[in-house]
Amino acid sequence: MAGGQIFHSIELGAAYAGWRLDRALADAVPTLSRERLKVLVKSGALQSDAGAVRDPAIKVHGGERFTLNVPAPSSPHNEAQDIPLRVVFEDEHLLVIDKPAGLVVHPAAGNLDGTLVNALLHHCGGSLSGIGGVARPGIVHRIDKDTSGLLVVAKTDRAHEGLAKQFADHSIERRYLAIVNGLPTSPEGIVDAPLARSSANRKKMAIVSEGRGKRAVTHWRLLTKLTDAALFECRLETGRTHQVRVHMASIGHPLLGDPVYGGTAKAHRALLKELRFARQALHAARIGFIHPVTKGRLSFDSALPSDMQELFTALGV
């Protein structure tokens, strides 16, 4: 180690011939994840006699020698903060958190502390996957500040990679409970509409023409009829920013309390004010996935939080 950097001398012998470079490096340097090695290679950290090698996908011929320059880990600017967490599950690889409404997932402008990441740094004592970067250690996915419910956090790079792959291929089970405005004419339905940043307001997401945004699919079904409202279960086939909120608003059933996508319908405004319910009525009620290390199936459920339960009761027929 020199100047805050760690150097690895790597020789890829004949046994690695035909392998992808990043795969061979991950096998030769097991202390670094394949994802981390891809980033390092693309940044020019891998040197051969001919200079930097920047393509992690090239094939190994066998007999190549490299020097890998790994920057020493930087101290995260996030502070560990003793913020209570409801831990639903935890092992050495990952944990599942039941997040309360109002808690921001990771630091950003206007929320530099008091976030889930600050709480995790305290709870885990530094054992969080670094793939998410200094600002977002361990974060594989997120839910909005004012949405409550379940999310999974990676404690190791191996777990992070395995979970990220499941999110990418949409094999993670994610079900939300939403209290929406109005009563549907059908008991269930599917919204298949691509989403992108709104051209009129960059803080909002919008349904766009095919080819412009990312495909987004939400399966919804009616659970309970309420007074000019309903409790929906929304199953995500994809997981886009604000997906449930935008999709439900697009079919005429915006989430009650949603300040961005029209959930403050006149019929319910007085009740929301009386209950001091000032968020979108959305709860991540179930998450299910294959454990990325043990390969066992895990599934977790979370009941409606007290504020949504109170709203549900007040709207009961």
DSSP helix count?
7
Q: Approximately what portion of the residues adopt beta-strand conformation?
A: 25-35%
The CATH superfamily of the largest domain is Pseudouridine synthase
**What is the CATH class of the largest domain?**
Alpha Beta
The CA-CA distance between the termini, in Å, is 69 Å
Count of β-strands:
15
Rg over CA atoms: 23 Å
Helix fraction, binned, reads 10-25%
Q: Give the second-level CATH assignment, the architecture of the largest domain.
A: 2-Layer Sandwich
Identify the overall geometry: elongated
pLDDT below 50 for ≥5 consecutive residues: which ranges? none
User: Which class best fits the helix and strand makeup?
Assistant: alpha+beta
Q: What's the domain count?
A: 3
CATH topology of the largest domain: Pseudouridine synthase
What's the mean pLDDT score? 90
- Major β-sheet, in short? 9 strands, mixed
Q: Give the SSE string.
A: EHHEEEEEHEHEEEEEEHHEEH
Keywords:
7 helices, alpha+beta, Pseudouridine synthase, nine-stranded mixed beta sheet, single chain, 317 residues, 15 strands, elongated, Structural Genomics Hypothetical 15.5 Kd Protein In mrcA-pckA Intergenic Region, Chain A, four-stranded antiparallel beta sheet
Account of the protein in words:
There is one protein chain. This protein has 317 residues and is an alpha+beta fold. The chain has 3 domains: 5-71, Structural Genomics Hypothetical 15.5 Kd Protein In mrcA-pckA Intergenic Region, Chain A (Roll), CATH 3.10.290; 75-169, 2-Layer Sandwich (Pseudouridine synthase), CATH 3.30.2350.10; 170-317, 2-Layer Sandwich (Pseudouridine synthase), CATH 3.30.2350.10. 21% of the residues lie in helices and 28% in strands. The chain has helices at residues 21-28, 34-42, 116-124, 157-168, 243-250, 266-275, 306-314; strands at 5-12, 46-48, 51-52, 64-71, 87-90, 94-99, 148-154, 173-181, 188-192, 195-197, 205-207, 217-226, 229-236, 282-290, 297-301. Strands 5, 6, 7, 8, 9, 12, 13, 14 and 15 form a 9-stranded mixed beta sheet that branches. Strands 1-4-2-3 form a 4-stranded antiparallel beta sheet. A two-stranded antiparallel ribbon has the order 10-11. The longest helix has 12 residues, at 157-168. The mean pLDDT is 90.
